[in-house]
C-alpha cells in the first residue's frame, strides 16, 4: 500500500489537507472518510480503518475539516453546514484527480455529515455510519452551558475531548437546521449502520432512529464491546472487515470504463501486456497473465509517485535481462559467480557528429550499465561475462531497428 498527501481548497479558498490510502493492486472503488467531531484525519480509528480497507482494494481519502488538524481556517467560523461543504469539495477532488467516490464513511458526527451530503453525490452507491447520531442537532447538549453566555459574548470557549475550542452563536444556530431525519428516508443508497450498544457518547437509540428512518437496502451491525472511539485496534479491524464485505454487494469498479472492466474480468493472454488507467493523472496498472505492477510519474511532474516511471521500467527490463543472462551462463559453465548487481542510468546527449543523424545537434539516448560481479573469478571469466551481458535478448532488441505498429481498437 502507499499513502498520498492530498491538498485541496474549501469553499472559502482555504487549504484542506488529507491522506489518501492507496491499495497495492487493483482499486475496487474510492471511499471518502469523515472523522468525528473535533477529531482529525489522524484519529487512530480512522487511520486503522482506512489502512485496512486499502489492503482490501478500497482507496480511502480521509481529511481534516476546516479549522481542525492541519487544515487551514478558524474552527469558530465553521459549522455543520461548512462540514458538509468540505465533504463535497473532497469528493470533487477525488473525482478530478482519481475517480468519484462510490462509498462514504462517517464516524460519530462525521456519520451525520455523510448522511446529509450523500444525496448531493450521484457517484455514491453506499453509505456507512459508525457510532453516529441521526441528526447533527444531537451535539447541542455539549453546549448547553454556552447558550446564555453567547447572548452577551461573540464567542465562548468550551472543553471538548480534553481540548479547548472557541464557538460562536452561529455554530449552535446552524445545528437547528439539522434536527430532522427526513433526509435519511430520501437517501436512496445502500446504508450500513455500525454502533456499539454500550456507546456512552452517542446512544444506541440514535442508531435505531437512523435505521427506522432509512429505506431498504439497510443493515445494522452491533459492535458489541467497542467504545465510541474504537480505541481497541481489534474493533477497528472488525469494522473494516464487515464494511468491506458488505460494500462488495453494492460497489462496482466505477472508475473503470466498461471496456476496462471487461478486460479486467478476462485473463490476459501469454505474451500480452495490458496497461490501464488507475486515476486521472499518471498512475497506470500494468497487467500480464500472472502479474500486476504500477507505473507512475514523480509528484514533481504531476504524478503520485506510486511506481516506476516509464524510463525506469525500460532500465529495469534491460537490467533484469542482463542479470538473468549472466546467471544462466554462469550456472551452465559452473563459474563461481556469487552475486550480480546491475546499475543503470538513462541520459540524453548531443550527437555532434552522429553518422546516423539526419541533422546536426540531434540528441541521442544513452543507457549506461554498470555490472558488479562477486565471486572467485579470473580476469578471463570477467571479460567473457561482459561479452555475455551484451548478448542479453533485451540488449539486442534495443540495439536492433525497432518497428512499432499502433492502431486504435473499438
Could you describe the 3D structure shown?
This protein has an eight-stranded mixed beta sheet, with helices on both faces. Strands 11-12-13 form a three-stranded antiparallel beta sheet, with no helix packed on it. The radius of gyration is 28 Å and the shape is elongated. The chain contains twelve helices and 15 strands. It has three domains: 2-247, Rossmann fold (3-Layer(aba) Sandwich); 258-301, no CATH class; 310-399, K homology (KH) domain (GMP Synthetase, Chain A, domain 3, 2-Layer Sandwich). Helix 1 (44-54) crosses helix 8 and helix 2 (80-97) crosses helix 3 (109-117). The protein is 31% helix and 25% strand. The chain is of the alpha/beta class and 410 residues long. Mean pLDDT is 87; it is low at 253-265.
Brief characterization of the structure:
With 410 residues, the chain is an alpha/beta fold. It has helices at residues 44-54, 80-97, 109-117, 149-152, 169-175, 182-185, 204-213, 233-247, 258-265, 310-333, 379-389, 393-399, and strands at residues 2-9, 15-22, 29-34, 58-63, 103-107, 126-130, 155-160, 163-168, 190-195, 218-222, 274-277, 284-287, 292-295, 337-351, 362-375.
